[in-house]
Specification:
The chain has a 5-stranded parallel sheet. By secondary structure, the protein is of the alpha/beta class. The chain has a single domain, classed as 5'-nuclease (Rossmann fold, 3-Layer(aba) Sandwich), CATH 3.40.50.
């Protein structure tokens, strides 16, 4: 298995399909460095596939995009980190959505930089490295 460096958030993949030049350029630059996606993001993307104007075409595009992207599941350690971080955020009065938190702790758990444009939520997660599009 190729070593991994980046975890793609759902919004970056949507930007890729929308033809955002900054995201396209950056993903082409780092494609060989090891890209991954959380099962949580994949579930969000499948919602978009099923409710697009052309679900069969959207599904093929997604499958093609994911051809060399590693899928990362939610394991026991990720769940433990989720519980710890959610409790810390709750105590601080700064809860974020569970899906975002699962994606973020997945990146921390696997020592990956999260590619996202949602800095407002993800910046609250302890130890998370973030890169946003230009």
């Amino acid at each position: 298995m190729t070593s991994l460096a980046y975890l793609l958030d759902t919004d970056w993949i949507i930007d890729w399909f929308s033809g955002h030049p900054g995201v396209g350029r950056r993903l082409r630059e780092i494609r060989g460095e090891g890209l991954a996606i959380s099962v949580v993001s994949l579930a969000e993307l499948y919602e978009g596939v099923h409710y697009s104007r052309e679900p069969a075409h959207a599904g093929r595009q997604l499958s093609q995009f994911l051809g060399d992207v590693t899928l990362i599941g939610v394991d026991r350690e990720t769940c433990d980190m989720f519980g710890q971080e959610r409790g810390r955020l709750r105590a601080a009065g700064t809860l974020i959505g569970d899906f975002d938190l699962l994606i973020g702790v997945t990146a921390v758990r696997h020592d990956l930089t999260l590619l996202t444009n949602n800095r407002r939520h993800f910046a609250l997660i302890a130890g998370l490295r973030i890169e946003s599009r230009q």
